[in-house]
Design brief:
Helices cover 0% and strands 45% of the residues. The protein has 239 residues and is an all-beta fold.
Length: 239
Amino acid sequence: FQTQYALSMACQGTVVLIEGEESPQSALPVLEREIFAVPFRQPVIERLRSQSGVNKPIFSGDTLVIEGRQLRGEVTQVRIGGDGVTPQPQDVSDTQISLPLTMPTLRAGVQAVQIVQPMMMGKPRVPHVGVESNVAALVLRPKITAVNAPDSTHVTVDVDPVIGKAQRVLLMLNEISNNAPAAYTFVAGPRNADAASITIPISGVKSADYFVRVQVDGAESSLDLDPASQHFGPKVTIP
């Protein structure tokens, strides 16, 4: 040893073989070998839009159009908010997928959309992990189906789709007036379960007619401001 230190102890390590008490089990022989070779074609999402037109709001029940490249695989699935949906074969092409938004688990707000293309292998052929597209953001807007103010301290709204118990909900009231209209915003309190109807406490709101909007996880409901429309509003009267 070439060192300036004084050695106090020297150790030598060796390998010790220990026989286990368990006997290994041999695997069954391979009866047939298969090789699967496929070209790497990763799907790419370029745009999400409503079937009703570009820049139109997207609601539950609408048909979502996914535009991109290499969207069609041997098996094509659409993942929205963690749930996988298989569109109809006639609604899938290499550049476009049409998907009705009718899933019962769908919630308003910003949802992640992704194309998943599993690989079919084996006998019988079963799906295995394949390729996935980039993630695109879908803003699914809530829709107010009914609104009521039973008194001057509460407003009840029915909303589609169902509001999750952990989702953040805002109620916005805008007075229908041409003379300095008032505006109010209220936050819904905690809830114990998902619900299609929610009652939100209000305070300090003067008696008048108001346009009503809700915001669920940042996605806002729409207003119809055409007085001649049968869907004018939605609106509510605060007593």
